[in-house]
Each structure stands twice: as structure tokens, then as C-alpha cells.
Amino acid sequence: MKVLRDLLFPSMAVLCAFLAGALIVALVGDSPVETYRLLLGSAFSWPDGIGYTLFFATPLIFTGLAVAVALRGGLLNIGAEGQLYVAAFATAWIGITFANLPAVVLVPLCCVAAIAAGAVWGAIPGLLKARFGSHEVINTIMLNFVAVALVGYLTQYHYRMPGDPIMETTPIGSGAHIPRLGAFIPGLPARIPLNIAFLLALLSCWLVYVLLWKTKWGYEIRATGQNPAAAEYGGVSIRKEVVLTMAISGALAGMVGINEVLGYRYRYYDGFSDNYGFTGIAVALLGRNHPFGVVVAALLFAVLQRGGVPVDAFTQLVSKDIVLILQALVILFVAAEAAFRRGGRG
Amino acid sequence: MKLELRGITKRFGAVLANDHLDITIPPGTIHAIVGENGAGKSTAMRIAYGFYTADSGEILVNDQARDIRAPRDAIALGIGMVHQHFMLVRPMTVTENIVLGAEPGSAMSLDLRKAAAGIRALSEEFRLAVDPDAVVEDLSVGQQQRVELLKALYRRAGLLILDEPTAVLTPQEVDEFFAILRRMRGQGKTVIIITHKLSEVLAISDNVTVMRDGRVVGQVKTSETDAAALARLMVGRDVLLRVDKPAAQPGATVLAVRDVTITARDGARRLDKVSFEVRAGEIVGVAGVEGNGQTELIEALAGLLPGSQVSGSMSLGGRDIRELDARRRREAGIAHVPEDRHRRGLLLDFSLWENAILGVHYRAPAVSGVGGVLLDQAAIQRRADLVIREFDVRPPNASLPARALSGGNQQKLIIGREFELPPALLLISQPTRGVDIGAIEFIHRKIVALRDSGCAVLLVSAELEEVTALADRLLVLHNGRVAGEVDPSRATHEEIGLLMTGGRA
Prior knowledge:
The complex is a heterodimer of chains A (346) and B (505).
Chain A: H1 2-28, H2 32-41, H3 48-72, H4 80-97, H5 103-132, H6 136-159, H7 197-214, H8 216-226, H9 228-233, H10 238-254, H11 256-265, H12 276-286, H13 291-314, H14 321-345
Chain B: E1 3-12, E2 15-25, E3 30-35, H1 41-48, E4 56-61, E5 64-66, H2 71-77, E6 79-82, H3 94-99, H4 112-125, H5 141-154, E7 159-163, H6 171-186, E8 190-195, H7 198-204, E9 207-212, E10 215-221, H8 227-235, E11 253-263, E12 269-279, E13 283-287, H9 294-302, E14 310-316, E15 319-320, H10 326-331, E16 334-337, H11 341-345, H12 352-355, E17 367-368, E18 374-375, H13 377-390, H14 407-419, E19 425-429, H15 437-452, E20 456-460, H16 464-470, E21 473-478, E22 481-486, H17 493-500
Parallel strand pairs in B: 3-8, 3-9, 6-7, 7-8, 13-20, 13-21, 16-19, 19-20
Antiparallel strand pairs in B: 1-2, 1-4, 4-5, 9-10, 11-12, 11-14, 14-15, 17-18, 21-22
């Protein structure tokens, strides 16, 4: 019953968003049916549609999880964007610096670098909050700018290939590459960058679920998020939880670096993130801060992202900005639904 | 002014809060409406005041049916309401508060001087002494209540609804307050008082309406009833109003507090060199008007205040506990039933089983497996079931969220959790606040049973009846100091009340 209701409300929000979107398309002067056919249809073709949709979903699952864990702990992490940039660069840095190591050593090392760098970047606002009480929203936003500037500087002045006009580092060692799923699935060409980071994302969902609901650590994180005064009463150190939760959140965001660097471009490419960190907030909201909900929401957003290109190419008037509009509408309706439920209770 | 509710029905979702209520309040009387929490008395009065609209039924004012859709309508008809939590703007003066919403003068000018004169006249007429120019936040709680009364009188209320008006007052203030109510009755005003304190009902009212489960179960003349009869109507069965307890058999000193001083972050002294002991097998009560250091004392003992704010010594069974955090203190045997169960005591959106392990969630038997990290669902379920069974938590379904329980059952869950530690020292604050009579009786018996099993109990309560009934020794706190220690079986409420307000016994 409860599961059904938890599924029903976000589904209604999505439905309402699509109806409102249809209205906008009609107002612009295109056919809503045709637009939605292009938008949604292209995501389900085999192999390109499905392959790319799952590839697009991968970073959104990581950032969605990152935001969801933080929210469960009562923290709003708007810094996933910065965390994933720092982590992606750290991944590439290890991959470049230790390029000659064998894959068995280098791949785990790079993964650890991604997770650790994200965790550290996430823990900083956590520490600031625990030590000085400064708000994590401000600090995570600020650290996004710092992160982008920092990795941009390092790329430009220290790790760029001489003569390369693009802002990207030299490639990582081939030992750091992780296989694309095309290597295992017949009919899925290797050019599609869907890689085992996608499986890692699914595994992370399950691990986050176990952490939050089956361990004492998760209990403390959730208790702190639900009612810090009661958690404190129950012997939980709020300061410790704030740092820990932000570190876990940052680590999850950092794992985007594994997908991007080890599985896709094999180097750090400046400005690679298509606002994954911010979209993660919407993903977490739509997924009700539940790891399994996050997967579903990430897939939905990936479908929209994938569908933007054909909409741009084949409709008369509507541009791919309809994707952004739909994303925004989904968020609006999810938020409205939350308000509606609160109002209904009081 | 006469007020009549006829066939009032109000439903909140699945809950029938008011079920065909018929209540008649004769003019010029003081009318008490009593009932347990959730009986629907506040809902009924909020309907009369226009906060809620009834699903069906009608409201008659002076025998005429009236449509009251908002408080504004009620005020226009001469109905005033004073809420349990005062609705005053604290940084504003008494006059400004009273005229708020009914400002005299034109749109461009505010004639406060005229208003102040009117307020002065009113406060003389009803002998409600308040300085119209005082700022509300500088006033005592009793004075703030008078401002609320003046606010209603200023709007020419002929009928006043008072929701739990005495909850925040000292015994002396209650006497004074009742005198004011009688004067208002003398001037022809009608007063409705919502309460759950039977002694006050008997002391002040002319008529009583008893409510249970959203229905009126009795309307009687106060002079023709007594506390036992009213309690029986309220609960639906016979209730033991007195705490039956054998004499205490105190053992060794468990808690020793020496010169404990608490300085809040703003530099204010909340507690000033307080010293006392609690022995095994005795209940030491702490009485005092709320805000005189009780909260801070309990929080300091539970390890919930930063060490930098607390000075002096605290030891448990001879062991210094100053350096222990909340978790270590619980491990040392200190259980804590907090004064505010929603703020501190419960995770409202968590299930009962998750709430049943708060504080012991990190150690066996709640955890098992690799390194003691995984929650042991079966063991937790057993513990939750034990608490639910032993402490009669209803409904007995451990997977419900704590939010779904009534106040009394939430409190029983917390008490059960803490009593099952089992503790060497129990810190218990406001154990029956917002708890219905049936559960009060149960909780009192459990506290006495815990004492008799050899636990030391430190009890804080704003209910004088409760501390005097339960405590074996009674400390009175005033302004952060121990104003005196009395024998609760001998001291009168007046003596204790004097100590509470800083006078001498």
C-alpha cells in the first residue's frame, strides 16, 4: 500500500509535467504527439537508444544517490557538481601519473582516487558546518566554483597535451581503461560508451540501501536527518554525522569520474559535466531520496536527455530546450506534490 | 451571552473528531469542558471560534443560528478565545498587541493614546493589572495571559473561550486568575474553560460538559458531581486518582550533584550552585515554574549540554560523569525520559521498532554480524515487542511510524525504552504532559515500581499534583537555585507555591 502510494505520487507529477509540456509545445505551434514520439521514441531503439540512455543515466544515478544520502542525513548537497569535477580530475591524474601500472592495480587505484577525492571535497563543507556552523548550501555552492577553477587551472597549465587546442589532459594509461558493456553484450557496438561503471552505479544503489536501512551507521545518518535533537539524545554525535554524511555524499558524486574518465574519454576533459550534479538534485527529489527511486528517476532524465537531439533535428519549431522545460516542470510538480501532502496532513 | 452547539460533526480524514455534539452554554456562567486528549474539546471550541468549519450542525448565539466561517466572524459576534500558546507579538507593547487587528484611528494615523486609556479603564474594571506601555517579552507568563484576556475584552467579547489556561501558571497565579474569571462572570460575561485538571473544574465552574471520543458523555452541574465521577465519565471506567505507593526504602547514594552551575551561551545563569543527592529506591521531585532551570539541570545530567556551559561536579555511584558524553552516560546507567517527546524523545517518522532502540541502536543486541554493524532485525523486533507489551503501547504494531500514536502511547513507548535499559538512575521530565488520565495512572505505577526495584529517580514536573504525589523528597527550584526542600506528604501547595515564586515558606 505504502509502496504503491510512493510510486503513485511521483508518477502523477511526471504525468502532469508531460501534460503541461504538451500544452507548451502546442502553444509554440508544433504537434505534441509528434514531439513526444521523437523525444521518447529515440530512447528505446536498439542498440543506440538504449545504450546511450543507460550511459546518460550512469552519472545521474551517482549524483542522485549523492544528493539523496545527504538529504536523508538532513543536508542539502548542492556541491555534487564540484565534487565530481575534482574526483574526475583526480582519477585522470592517477591514471596519467601511474600509467604504466597493470590494470589489476591501476583500475582499483583510480577508483579509489575518484571516491576519495569526492569524499574529501564533500567533507570540507561538512567540517565547516560541524566546526563553525556555516550552512552547507552556501559552502557547497562556493566550492563548486573553486573546484571548476582548480581543475581548469591544473588542466590548462600542468596536464594539457602540448599543442592540443582542446582543454583536456593527456590520456590515461591503457591499464586504467574499464571495459565497455559492448564487450560482453552481443549486438551492442563498442562505440557506445556504456561501460561497467553503469553496473557499479546499480551496485552503489544497493549498497546505499543497505547502508541506510540495515546498518547502525545508516540509522544514525537517518536519525540525524529526521530529528537532530533526538539523535543527539540517543547518543549520536551530530558533528560527526554531518562530516560523515557529506563525505559519503561526495564519494558517490565522485564516482561519476569513473564513468567519465575510465570508461568514456580516457582522459580528463574540461567542462565534461552536463550539470550532472544539479540534475542529481532533481533526480533525488523525484526518486523520493530512495536509492531505487533514484535509478528510475535517473533513467527518466536520461531518456529526456537522449531525446533532445531528435526533437531539435526533426521538429519545425520546438528546440531541445523542451527537455529542460520538462525537467523543470517535473521538479515543480514534485515540489507541489510535497506541499500538497504537507497541507493535507495539517 | 448564550452559546449553543447543535449536532456539530467534524471529521479529519478517518478521524471523527466531533460526533453530533450538543452543548449548551448558559449566559453568565463559567462552563468547563473536560475530556482526555483527543476527546474533541479543542476542535469543538475551534469550530465555535471559526478556526474550523463543521461538516454539519449549527451554532447558535443568543438563540440565533449564526454562520461562523472565520475567527473574524466570531469576534464580530462577541466571541473571544485565548489559546494555550499565547498569540502575542513579543517585542511590541501591551497596547500595540491589544489593538492589533482592531487599530483605532484612521488608516493613516494610529491613535494609541486613546487605546491605552481604554485599556487602562478595562484593566481597572476587571482588576487585570497590566501596564499598557510595557513590552510583552518583559512580562511574566501570568501577565501575558492577562494581556490575552484584555485583548478579547477590548474587542467587546461577551463570551471567552480559554484553552488550558492554567497550564503555565503557579498555584498563586491560578488563584488570582480564578478571581478574575469570577469578576468577569459578575459583569455578565460567559466563560468557557477547556481543561483536563479536575480539581480546577470543581473549583471554578458552574457547569461541566464531559467529552469522550468526540461525543458529549455528560453535562452536569458542578455542584452535583465530584472528581471521581468526572474521571469515570472521561475515561469510561473507574480511575485511581491518588498514587498508591509504599514508603521509600532509600539505599546508597546514586547521583551526587555538587555546586552545579550552568551558564547559557548568552551568559545567563540557568542554574546556580545546585547541590543534591538521589539515593537508590527513592524519587526526588523537582518542582518549579517552568523556565527556572529544570530543563537545563536534566539536560546537563543527561550529557546533552556542552561541557563548557556546566561547572561543578556530578557523580554516579561515586564515578565522575562530567567527561562522559550522552552515549557513555546511558551506558553508565542513566536513562532519560525527556520533557519534550517530539523534540528529543522520538523520531516521529521512524517506526516503533526503530524508536525502541534509540540510544542502544549501536550495540548488541540491536546489532550483530560483521564487526557489529548490521542491525539485527529479529532482536530489535523482540525488544520492540517487549516494550510494546510491557508498557501497553497501542496499537501494538511495531512497524507503525511513531507519529501515528497518540501522545500517551508515544510517552509509554519512550518510558518503556528507557525503563528496559535497565537504569541505575532515571531522569524523567514531565512524564504525563499531554497524556490522558488512564495512561497517567499507568505511568505513575511504573515509576513507583521502578523505584521499588532499586532505581534512583529524579522527577521534574510542572504539575504540582504530580510531583507531590510521586516524590519522596521535593526540591523547589526558583531562578536556578534550590529555594528549599520539603516533605511532599506534609507541605501544602501554598507553601510549595511560595517557594516556587521566590517567597519563603
